[in-house]
Amino acid sequence: MRFLYTNLFVLALPIVLLRLYWRGFKAPAYRLRWRERLGFYTTTTQKNVIWLHAVSVGEIEAALPLIKALISHYPQNKFLITTTTPTAATRINTVFGNKVTQIYLPYDIPNIIQRFLKHFQPKIALIMETEIWPNLFFAIKQAQIPLFILNARLSVKSCNGYQKIPALTKLSLSCVNMILTQTITDAQRFQAIGAETKQLQTVGNLKFALSLDPQLFTQAQQIRTNIFPDRFVWIIASTHAGEEKIFLNLYASLKRQIPELLLVLVPRHPERFVTVAKQIQATQLSFITRSSGKVCTKETAIYLADSMGELKLFYAAADVAFVGGSLVNTGGHNILEPAAIGIPIMFGKYMHNFQAIANEFLEHQAAIQCHNSDQIQAELLNLYQQIAYRSKLINNGKNIFQGHQDVINKILPILKPYL
Predict the structure, then answer these.
(1) Are 20 and 32 within 8 A, CB to CB?
(2) Share of the chain above pLDDT 90, in %
(3) CA atoms of 48 and 155, how far apart (whole Å)
(4) Residue 383 contacts by C-beta under 8 Å, 6 or more apart in sequence?
(5) CB neighbours (10 Å) of residue 13?
(6) Is the dihedral of CA 298, 304, 307, 311 positive or negative?
(7) How confident is the model at residue 30, as a pLDDT?
(8) Cα(283)–Cα(247) distance, rounded to whole angstroms?
(9) Which one of 12, 20, 120, 298 is least enclosed by Cβ atoms within 10 Å?
(10) How many whole angstroms separate alpha carbon 415 and alpha carbon 407?
């Protein structure tokens, strides 16, 4: 089965590279450093590196506290962080600089994987969330490198998909030393696709290990004072195509009832910044962008945050947050950042990528789920008018957040014998 998978991947490789080139039209960074994806490197060979892989920004943000803890506990080691997307690569370089080596994960073809492992010779492999690569996992096992899946989660959809290729999935999972899952449900799903009970341990969600720089709130207050003066700030974060339109259509009606309303739009992907700006322009609403350096006037309706790595800052400068990717069938995004910062949270009906967290917040009255535009409008007005209600949501969210923050202390002892 792995032989067939490999041959199909080799045949598809020209298409994969062409897609990478095509994506470069919107995000030019995709055309840079493409040789790394084929296992060719300009850096010198390294040995015994601690290697962690996280696909994109969401996984990187979850991994940051663990990476920092590992650097603190094992400062004599070299660290390698692999990602798949340029935005994740940028985030790693921004946070760690030359403290770590960052490259793109090589494609899952045996000779490419061998070049990668020969060049970096990891002492341990830490894979975040739901990345199962048959050739990579097999090569890691052959090289006798301990392999862990951290913060492991498996949606119903992914579980069903992996169950369609049981031989390949079970073979891949047999290469893993341990799978540290977010929830018991995730552990059960991994077991359903071939993991053994002895491989599984539920330790919680690394996203709860989020730590905030105290300077964040100082900087956010400066934004409130200098850029958003005297405004009720509603941030719409991590939006996908089709979502911005919903909020732009709501603005005029909400503005009549919230005169000081300012809508802060933060698209999930930087390649959409220009598209969203044109979309706002077409509404004839007054707007400015982060990149312009301008400040809001009383006439400014929309503030477009066309920057990277500043989402937490804008959360801290807002009164209410709506977390996107949840009004279209994307699966939602992380609601723990605004919870930790301390603002009321709203999200849409599609939260299957974060279902356990969403359910817990809803159960403890720490967030609001909205299924349509009318409900979004009614709930925002309710939050605007009832300060006590806003405070209740904030406090409930912080209580949930604080109750889960020991996850790193559970992971480090498990990894210690291998480090």
Answers:
(1) no
(2) 82
(3) 33
(4) 320, 344, 346, 368, 389, 390, 393
(5) 15
(6) positive
(7) 87
(8) 11
(9) 298
(10) 13
Enumerate the H helices of 24-56 as residue ranges. Answer: none
User: Known catalytic residue: 59?
Assistant: yes
Partnered with residue 102 across adjacent β-strands are 81
Domains delineated in the chain: 2-205+406-418 (3.40.50.11720), 215-402 (3.40.50.2000)
308: Cβ–Cβ under 8 A, 6 or more apart, which residues? 87, 90, 91, 270
201 has a pLDDT exceeding 90? yes
Written as one letter, the residue type at 257 is Q
Given the structure tokens 């967030």, which residue do they identify? 367
- Confidence category of residue 28, pLDDT binned at 50, 70, 90: confident
Buried b / exposed e across 373-387, counting CB within 10 Å, b at 16+?
eeebeebbeebbeee
| C-alpha span between 346 and 326 (Å, rounded) | 10
Q: Where do the DSSP E strands lie in 243-282?
A: 261-267
CA distance 90 to 88: 5
pLDDT at residue 390 tops 90: yes
Distance CA(193)–CA(188), nearest Å, equals 9
Distance CA 172, CA 156 (A): 19
* pLDDT greater than 90 at residue 54: yes
- Cα–Cα distance measured from residue 398 to residue 392, given in angstroms and rounded to the nearest whole number: 10
d(Cα 92, Cα 71) in Å, to the nearest integer? 14
Contact 238, 270 (CB under 8 A): no
